[in-house]
Design goal:
This protein has 227 residues and is of the alpha/beta class. It contains ten helices and eight strands. The chain has one domain: P-loop containing nucleotide triphosphate hydrolases (Rossmann fold). The chain is globular. The termini are close together. The chain binds 2'-deoxycytidine-5'-monophosphate. 2'-deoxycytidine-5'-monophosphate binds next to α2, α5 and α9.
Length: 227
């Protein structure tokens, strides 16, 4: 029962991966890592510092100046993204970053930078990590891989409800266009495209509530931990 495992959760944007990963980690007393937040923080740094996405020299130089950390926030019960000692958790979720992050995440040097840190975080196991390439590239030997999917219309609806809280002017059309754009870039990029690992368990949560999805994933996790 004390056998710690790595749980890799991959899937499309706004499928509820982070919510599931966070709940599983809390239940198992594991560390939860939202790798999308790392790519978002790098994208924010590039945007702020006007780093051209095709300028390899500038990119490599910029990455040397980026330190990423997670800091637990007792108010939200989750970790905030810290970029060079600044809490950027709110800013990395804004549309300006969402619109550019897939382009930044497609850059090889950015992926090398993020993946090395993610692999170091998993050395002790006891981790739930969510992203796009966790089961395929970051932890190809993860004991449990979950590939989360949901109907595109349902994803838009969920994201709309979430974003409306901070941005009352946001439209469903804008969200649908952003999700489609990100899915396309994430699945067609050359480096580590989003794809289901051959040994992943598929979790289509279109018709599931959070509790049903959590119970199913927890069962899968306990099966692996106990065997
Ligand atoms: O999960 P998210 O929407 O916060 O991810 C932001 C972007 O980062 C998304 O467009 C895909 C990319 N990403 C990635 O390429 N690899 C990961 N492991 C996690 C996210």
């Amino acid at each position: 029962m004390s056998n710690k495992i790595i749980i890799a959760i991959d899937g499309y944007s706004s499928c509820g991966k982070s919510t599931l990963a966070k709940a599983l980690a809390a239940q198992l007393a594991y560390v939860f890592i939202d790798t999308g937040a790392m790519y978002r923080a790098v994208a924010l740094y590039f945007l702020r510092n006007k780093i051209a996405f095709d300028d390899e020299v500038a990119i490599v130089g910029a990455l040397k100046n980026i330190t990423l950390n997670f800091s637990y926030n007792a108010a939200t019960l989750k970790s905030d993204m810290i970029l060079n000692n600044e809490n950027v958790e709110a800013e990395i979720r804004e549309m300006a970053v969402s619109q550019k992050v897939s382009e930044v995440a497609a850059i090889g040097a950015v992926r090398d930078f993020a993946v090395a840190q993610q692999q170091a975080m998993g050395q002790q196991k006891g981790i739930v990590m969510d992203g796009r390439d966790i089961g395929t590239v970051v932890f190809p030997n993860a004991e449990l891989k979950i590939f989360v999917t949901a109907d595109p219309a349902i994803r838009v609806e969920r994201r709309f409800l979430e974003l409306q809280l901070t941005n009352p002017n946001i439209s469903k059309e804008e969200i649908a266009a952003n999700l489609q754009h990100r899915d396309l870039l994430d699945t067609t990029r050359e480096r580590s495209p989003l794809k289901q690992a051959a040994d992943a368990q598929v979790l289509d949560n279109s018709k599931m509530n959070r509790e049903e999805q959590f119970n199913l994933a927890l069962q899968w996790a306990l099966d692996k931990i106990q065997h």
